[in-house]
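Q: Here's a chain of 169 amino acids. Please give me its 3D structure as tokens.
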Amino acid sequence: MICVPCSDKDPEEKILRDYFDYIKKIAWRYAGRGAEVEDLEQEASMGLITLARKCPPNEELSNYIRKRLPGQVRDAAHRYRYPDLHCELTEAHKEAIPAPKKHIPIDFIDLLERNFSESDLFIIWALSWGCTQKEIAEKLNKTQQSIHYRLTKIRKHLQDLLRRYWDME
């Protein structure tokens, strides 16, 4: 089927009817762990309509949709599973960070603040709140690979600090 304007009164409804089974199949594929089937069916329907509008005239609609719709539904499922986490460290967030547990001495917290830069502390804080490396990279305007590399260095440095700290006692 080549992308040509439909002669039906409502071409979007015809497209939805034609691809109804495909929409259900994709929704079931990505459902679970917080992403409901009905929500994903709705996302797939909206994605199908927008893709049908964007389809170039010389490309087959079925191939165009087959290549792009699963990715849109997958991204929607990810949004449902992991709602937008605020990974920006502001003054309000600094005040909202809970005080350390009683068994962690405050001098150890000071030791961390002295040995890590502001961006390293932000990375540690953001990871503890569930942000992904990709989200942290976006907030810091860096690549995910650079955050991964920096995180490797932070872990190594933290291991050395913990060894020194616990050996002192």
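Q: Can you summarize the key feature?
A: The radius of gyration is 24 Å.
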